[in-house]
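FORM 7B: Structural annotation worksheet

SECTION A. Query
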Amino acid sequence: MKNRTFIIYAAAGIFLVAVIGGCETRHPHEEVRAVDWYESNPVERAAKLAECKANPSKLDATPSCINASRAENNAKSGGEWSTERSGVRTEPTAP
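SECTION B. Predicted structure
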């Protein structure tokens, strides 16, 4: 009886470890680049945006994709949005 109980617990433990271990797929850690870096490296920015567009369900909300997208928007705007003349305040006002 003890031998049978041990086998059942061992099988349940192995099953549990297999299920928990398979729930998460590990991706290699990617270095997150800043918006400034993507602004000064247009080739890498284009490559990252192409990668993000190729797999949007997994990559679209990652920090690198967001930063590359922001850098692309900044590059296309030509700095227009950061000037006082355009009426957009970029610095928060402190009370």
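SECTION C. Observations
The chain has a mean pLDDT of 76. The radius of gyration is 24 Å.

SECTION D. Sign-off
Analyst initials: ____
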